[in-house]
Each structure stands twice: as structure tokens, then as C-alpha cells.
Amino acid sequence: MGKNLTSRAEDYSKWYNELVVKSDLAENSGVRGCMVIKPYGYAIWEKMQAQLDKMFKETGHENAYFPLFIPKSYLSKEASHVEGFAKECAVVTHYRLKNAEDGSGIVVDEDAKLEEELIVRPTSETIIWDTYRKWIQSYRDLPLKINQWANVVRWEMRTRLFLRTAEFLWQEGHTAHATREEAIEEAELMMHVYAEFVENYMGVPVIKGTKTASERFAGAEETYCIEALMQDGKALQAGTSHFLGQNFAKAFDVKFATKEGGQEYVWATSWGVSTRLMGALVMTHSDDNGLVLPPKLAPIQVVIVPIYKGMDQLDAISEKVEPLVMQLRAKGISVKYDNRDTHKPGFKFNEYELKGVPVRLAIGQRDLENGTYEVARRDTLEKESVSAAEIVGKVEALLEDIQRNVYQKAIDYRAEHITRVDSYEEFKKVIEEKGGFVSAHWDGTPETEDKIKEETKATIRCIPLHEEQEEGTCMVTGKPSLQRVLFAKAY
Amino acid sequence: MGKNLTSRAEDYSKWYNELVVKSDLAENSGVRGCMVIKPYGYAIWEKMQAQLDKMFKETGHENAYFPLFIPKSYLSKEASHVEGFAKECAVVTHYRLKNAEDGSGIVVDEDAKLEEELIVRPTSETIIWDTYRKWIQSYRDLPLKINQWANVVRWEMRTRLFLRTAEFLWQEGHTAHATREEAIEEAELMMHVYAEFVENYMGVPVIKGTKTASERFAGAEETYCIEALMQDGKALQAGTSHFLGQNFAKAFDVKFATKEGGQEYVWATSWGVSTRLMGALVMTHSDDNGLVLPPKLAPIQVVIVPIYKGMDQLDAISEKVEPLVMQLRAKGISVKYDNRDTHKPGFKFNEYELKGVPVRLAIGQRDLENGTYEVARRDTLEKESVSAAEIVGKVEALLEDIQRNVYQKAIDYRAEHITRVDSYEEFKKVIEEKGGFVSAHWDGTPETEDKIKEETKATIRCIPLHEEQEEGTCMVTGKPSLQRVLFAKAY
Question: If you ran DSSP here, which 8-state letter would residue B67 be given?
């Protein structure tokens, strides 16, 4: 199997599309804009889910499940929310099909028209806050910290596997609090939880910050985000956490009796990450040979390929390998011993390289005689010979080192792609020629933000947290600015 | 908190509805027929999922994810399939809302009408077999054994929490095989896997069998099922596994190159269990005091309630309890120490009884002095005093014993509610007065089956596997019959 993968330099976008399909992560379905997540891709998503779910529970959240459908009237209750989602939602209008009277096939049964249309959830604030009204009466019922794993639909016109699909999988946290401060604390906490996951498990460094008013979630008072940088110099929003103020509580009339005996509207947050993270994972680490997966999320961490002629040699190899497989599994390492006799070693090497398996062991006749394995690491493609006695320790060390290395490589790449500029000319040049994040002063107005976006396609990715205050002047208008913000072209 | 629960004897159906809501498992949402699964209910479902998922993986299945939407034309490709599902499906016809021109609010944008309507999946055979066509070329690609965890929608007119809802959560396995025999073996295997789960984890005994032609899944050649019996004498289908023959392969043109160089249609199975199992769990074990949960699926296995006056006593108790909590958790037991000072012990006792927590420990001043705990088991409501030194072992033993006991109780109930009858008169009397399963001879025709159903509301739940052959005559028509089948009224 040749990989026949377009190189990143040649066409980054094409490279990505081909890689996702060829490495068996996902493919387009017969339904416009909807993807099929294939077993290998889903196995990575399951690992992400398991870790995130653990982190949510450790921070006091519980899972629940709310309806797929949202009555049209619910969506309309929060003004900016409906503004944000009405333009791209799938609408259920009927609940039955029937045989056409003219025999032309199956048609919608007009007698089964819904009184009120249902929207397939694009996000669940409205249906959840309609429910919270019943659950929250008193300060004793707060905080309420719930997460949901679900599918959502946003009818995008231009779609790309994982990055932008009509249907995608995600989790959405929805919390309710007695005070503004506590809700803000929660929204910030979840941004940090996301950052910890994305950095420590996905090996993708992120910048934490807040969105400008025009980039905020529809219905939020503040949107916290984590922004990552892809190898083509474009940014990708990896997760968002919203402080919703009392907007949804007011829209759905959710009040609570305070300790002091008053009645107050509840404070809210929501936060989510989606299968989009799969796109970030692929685009951050992979190379022209295929996927490079961080060991913590690799469905197969170690593959063992026997190199043999004839069944006797294979048997002798298997006798060595099988106890090793057991030893590695006992350490919690996921191992595949690929002894298929339908495919040659070279084919297998290619396949596991394409699929980003972090560590590959090969063992042939000479290794058998010498008591060695050939060990190859996917991230650097380096190979070495390691004695069987040391192999378990070597594999453990390698997995840790690869996890560290892919992260460090991404950090280094990003460090080289954050440019500070002080003039709009310079800004345009960097955005056009080099890409990456550009740190610049901005006057804080949506007008300037729009102008920059229109002229350069770059948007403000975030107002970084903990960025030092620095007096300056907006690169476009020359008006005063107290802090640099981060611009980039983005996915 | 009084429980105010209707008793089973008074009104079984009302008891169930009240119990599901009051024990915080689920509730109806603002969307007709769609439920909200609350955190406590979802925690049980998560435990079910985790165990089933493990069993699926151990039997060689992988997870994947397919689109929520099914183009109308796909549904129509398999004749009996569309017949079965067209009458109850949610249809997406538009992909945008807009502001009404007369200012009356948000309306469907008629300019955004889909060329082809999309059905919200009622089950995924069609979209999956459309995908399998691309994945299967050769016998080397077989078997293909995939499972999906997903939400599905069937527009039911009369709904009940968990038992029958418009949207529900489930898993659906879809496998492809090179031979008829292998597919049948798979369908049977999954029936056994389901039975093992339902009996050993849910503590619900089931009868394995096959469905009659008229009760089969729309598109199946054989439907294997597991049937459980509820405390009101009605049966509940707990899981089904279908041998689909080559029906979907033919409808979606999925052929493979055989080892011998020919081309053949692929053989298929599908199998699923859903959140309906939650209903079976509740209805099998629970009593007039609330839920009774089998320890293996209880989100909280042990609750510890302190009985104290003043903070000094609470501190002294907590000093004892906290190490115990650690010890129990180290054994993998989920423990809640409820030291809330907002609620009295009696309230807490009631609450955990209602929620079916298997073991309750209480500790007060006198226990502290005597070095004891009061131990109560939820299934029998028995209480005893146990010394602190023996408490860990006691709790472990109790959890095992409760798991065994609730299962045995359900087996005993069922044994008392399987009646063999030889005349239709007797049949009608048993169905009417006693309920339960009725084992009787039937002539094998759908006409007789329909007549019985119409006259008694009883259906053939299954043709039991491994039932001994026994020559007899149909209780209705007197025609010859070789095997008894199981009738019951059913959910």
C-alpha cells in the first residue's frame, strides 16, 4: 500500500482531507454535511470522552440527557440566541410518511403536520433552562452542575470532516449558580479544565483568553476560549466556556429563593468541546507520512510486526512475542500483534505509520537470534535495536517521551509563529506571508475589528488572559489601547 | 419527606409513573413524548452502557458513529422496513428559520426547503448499509462487527417514561458476514450476551426465544429476543437481535468477492437494547417504598447517615466514618456520606429508600460508644447492628447477597407466573385473572395469532429456545402443533 498522500507543503487542506479518510478516521456520508466516524476515529474520540468525563466528574459535574428536539418557540425566547442559530437549523415539520396516492413512492403525510415545528438542537440552553425552571426553587438547589454528551446539528453550507459538519458530537455543560461571581468562576474553571485536557492529553498547546463582543456565543456575556495553532499557521478554537449572566434565567423565568428570603434570577454558564478536537489533533501533529498520535489518545499504542518466511519462523517469533504482549498489557499499554499472513511487513509498516501508531516493534529471524527487537518511533521516525530484556522499559519510556515530544514540537512551532507587530502594514504582511498568531494593539471597537477582518480575513482569536498591560495605540486607528490582542486567520 | 407513592396493588401503572419521577430517574419534557433523563437515572444508564460496551468489545465489536439523518429514499429501499417505520418518523423538511415578514415572530424559511426530506433515524440499517457498500469488497473485509451508541426517534402517540418515548437512547449493532451460518451465529450470540447482562447485572431473569413472523423486526428473517416479566404479570421485551438475511445487502447492493472468486451478497445482523431497560429494572425489583436497585448498577451502593445533635457529635462521627469511606472506596464500592445539616436523618432515610440505595449505614451517639453501625438492606428492609471491626466485610457480603436476592425473587415470581394451559377457555381465564406467561399450543398461523390477540390482548412473546418438542393441538383451532409457545400481555 502506497500512502499517496498529498504533502502539507503542496496543499495543506487537501493533505488534511485525504489523511482523515485514508487513516480511517472518518468519511463523508450520503447525507450532505454529515460524517461517518469510522471505528479507528471513534476509538480516539472515546478516549477523549473518557478523560474529559473523568475531569468533569472530578470537578463536581453529573451527566444527564435532554431532548434532541427544541420547540421553535423556545429558541425564540432569548433574542440574541435565536439570532445566532435560526439561520442554520434543521426543522422537523411532520411526523409521518405515507405512500403517495399516485403510486410515485413514499411522501410526507400532510395530515401529520406538527402544530409547532421542532428544531434539531444546535445547542441545548433553551430546552435545559426550560427544565431548570422546574428543578430550581431555592438556593439549596444550587449550584446545579450538569453535563450532556450529545449530537447537535448546525446546517453549515461548507463542511469539512471533523472541523465543520452539519451534525457533530460534543459535550455541553450547563450550570446554574446563586451568584454572578460563582458563575464566572465556573466558566473560568472549565476553560482551565479544557486547556489541561488539550495540552496534557492531546499534546496541543493553547492560549487562554476571552472573545470580543462580536465573537461571543449567542446569548453570552463573556466567552472564554482556548485557541490552538495548526501547522498551516491558522488558528483553531478548541473549546469555549460561556458566562451567560442571567439571560437564560430571565428568558425562561428561573428564579430562586435566596438565603435572605428574596427572589433572584439564577446565574448561568455553558461550555463545550466537540469532535472538532479530532481535527485539531490531526492537524497539529501529523506529517506527510500520515497521522502522528500522542500516546495518551492512541487506540493502539504499540504494534508488533513479525518478519518471517514460512510458518515455522512465525511460530518461533510468536512464542517470543506473545509473552511480551501480555507484559505490556499488564502495564496498561494497548498492543496489537499483527500476525496477519495476508499482508507483507512493508504494507503493515506503511499502514501503522499512516495510522499514527506511536511505537512499532519489528522482529525477524536475526532479531530472534540476537534477542533483539527493532524499535521505531512514529514522531521522529527514528529506529534502534533494543534487547528483549530491556524492551518493556524501553517502550514505557518511549511512550512518555513521544507524548512529551509532540507537545514540545507544537509549542516550538507556535513560539515561532507568534509575531508582535505595531503597524497595520506589518500586520497585513505577517498575516499574508507567515500566518500564525499576530499580537497587536486594537482600539476595542467592533468597527475596527470588522475592517481588519474584511481586509485581511484575520479575526481576533482572543484577548489573552494574564497578558501584561501595555499602553499602546491601535494599529489601525491610532486610538489608545491598554492590551495587545491575538489575531489570526482561523478554521 | 413523605414518599406519597401510590402502591402497586392500588394502581401499578400510576405507581411506576410516580416512582420514576419521584426517585429522580426521569421526567417528561416540554417536547411531546421526549423525556429528560435526570442525573440519577443517567448514572444507572451509564453503568449499563459501560458493562454492555465491555461485553460488545470482548466479543469483537468496535464502536463507530453514523449520521442522525436518513434521506427519505434510503428508507424506501427495503420494502418491509419502510412499511414498519414510515408511520412514526420525524421528518426534517427545512434548514433555516427567519423573521416573519409581518413581524409575527420566527417562522420556517420556505426558501430553505430541502430537495429531499430527511428522516431522523428510527434505526440505522439503511444509512449503515449504504456505507457498508463502500467498506466491503472482499471476503477479507468480513466479518464487519460494528456497534453504535445513539439516540433514535419513533413518533409514538402514547408514551411512557423509559418504556415508550419518541426519542430514546440505545445501542445498535450492525454486522456483516460472508455466510448465512455465521450471521445466524452472531445474532444468537448477541441474544445470549443480552441475556447474560440482563440477568447478571440487572438481576432480571429472561426467556430466550424467537419471534413469530408477525412480531419480527421490519426487514428481518428471524428475530431473537429476551422476554422479561414485570410484577404486574405483563411481559417486557428487553432486547432483540435480528438475522437480516441478505435483505439490506440486496437493497443497498453490497456484494463481496468470495474466496472462490465469485460475487455474493453479504449476510447481516442487527441488535439493540435501549433505555427501555431502565423501565424493566424499575418494574422488576421496586416496591411500595421506592426503587430497589441491584448493587451492580446502583450509582450509590452504600449511604452513611450520621445521627447527631450538635457539631461536636457530628465531628466525632465523621472522624469514624471518613476512614471507613476510604476503606470501602478502596474496594471499589461507591459510598456517599450524607452529612448535610439541612436535612434530618428521617428525611434522608426516606430519600435513600426511595432511590433504592442497596445498603444504608447509620451511626449515632450510642453506636459511637458501642463501636457499631446500624446496617439496613434495601431489598428486605432488614436491619441489624454490626461492629465497626466487621463492617467492611459485612457490606461486601451484603452487596453480593442483595444482588443474588433480587434476582432470585424475580425468578421465583416468574416461576409462579408461567402457566401451562391446554384449552382456550383456560387460556383466557389465566390471561385475564392471573397474568404472566402462558405456555400453550398454537397452530403456527398468523390468523390464529391475530384472533388471540384481538380477543385477549395477549401476544406471542416468543417461541422459546430449547423448549422440548411436545406433540399437541392448537388451543384455538385444534390443528396439530409441535411446540408450546409463550403468550402474555406485554408492554
Answer: -
